[in-house]
Amino acid sequence: MTTLLQRDRPAAPELQDIRIHAFDKAPLGAEVLGLDLARPLADSDFRRIHQAHLKHHVLVFREQRITPAQQVAFSRRFGPLQIHVLHQFQLPGHPEVLVVSNVIDENGKPIGLGDAGVYWHSDLSYKDRPSLGSMLHAQELPAEGGDTLFANMHLAWETLPEALRRAVEGLRAEHSYLCKYEELRQRSPWRPKLSEAQIAEVKPVIQPVVRTHPETGRKALFVSEHFTTRIVGLPEAESRELLAQLFAHSVRPEHLYRHVWQPQDMVFWDNRSLMHLATGFPPEMRRRLNRTTIEGDAPF
Ligand code: SIN
């Protein structure tokens, strides 16, 4: 006999026919087919995706016809969301969504961050609690270019020459949102001047140069040309030289996966394992994507 309690309990979501295929000949990344994020996601399907994310570092969910609210809800299953300091580029009605776009609206105002990712970086490494991972959902893609590159920072650490490993293990580095900000503003005059309140939101932080992934225990290099300003305790020239060597090694071709976007792709990457770079596209073309960013742990 069905009790009142059983009758009122919502039915558990149905399992979906999810297939996960690692990318051939790439040092990271997998494609996820058969998943519809517009439908309720069963806990066991969520756990499969979580495990695949830890294993492959980049998951490409194909053909996601989802709303910004659905992207936000799915992202929140991994942790609290972070609001980007450039509040100007929030998607209206969705402060958790940063618009990544070069599109200018009918009033001549940019609708999003047009030059996001032009330097290699890990999202929000300039915060005490940098991002666990980010999700980028394609809304409008250029006919040419616009790819995103990802670098496997575990491999970067594991293949670092022994002398360099010894030189950097235990070191710490400063990360600052302001590192390249003025240089980018010179190139992209639409970039807003930061207010005092925004500058106060992004005070420089000190992070380990080699971090340990909090879920897998794997070590990864954690410095980037976009946000790392200096290695703590080293003379300026020595710090600059060491960082240049680490940056160059991190992005060797064998550490990279190039994502060529397809319509409705949603890409979910692990900022604790990777850096990424937007490769650019002809400026007369339009590109628009919605980004959510999940908060991670303080690096150790
Ligand atoms: C980003 O750095 O979050 C944007 C990457 C891209 O636009 O490809």
Description:
Helix content is 23%, strand content 26%. The protein is of the alpha+beta class. The chain has one domain (15-295): Clavaminate synthase-like (Double-stranded beta-helix, 4-Layer Sandwich), CATH 3.60.130. The strands form four sheets. The protein has an eight-stranded mixed β-sheet with strand order 1-2-3-14-6-16-5-4, with helices on one face. The longest helix has 15 residues, at 236-250. The radius of gyration is 20 Å and the shape is globular. The mean pLDDT is 96.
Notable characteristics:
300 residues; alpha+beta; Double-stranded beta-helix; eight-stranded mixed sheet; 8 helices; 16 strands; 26% strand; globular; binds succinic acid
CATH architecture: 4-Layer Sandwich
Amount of beta strand: 25-35%
Q: What percentage of residues falls in helices of 4 or more residues? A: 10-25%
State the order of secondary-structure elements, H for helix, E for strand.
HEEHEHEEEEHHEHHEEEEHEEEE
Please report the total strand number as a whole number.
16
CATH superfamily: Clavaminate synthase-like
> Separation of termini?
54 Å
What's the CATH C level? Alpha Beta
Rough outline: globular
Mind describing the biggest β-sheet? 8 strands, mixed
- List low-confidence stretches: none
How are strands sequenced across the largest beta sheet? 1-2-3-14-6-16-5-4
Number of domains: 1
Q: Kindly report the average pLDDT value.
A: 96
Under CATH, the topology is which?
A: Double-stranded beta-helix
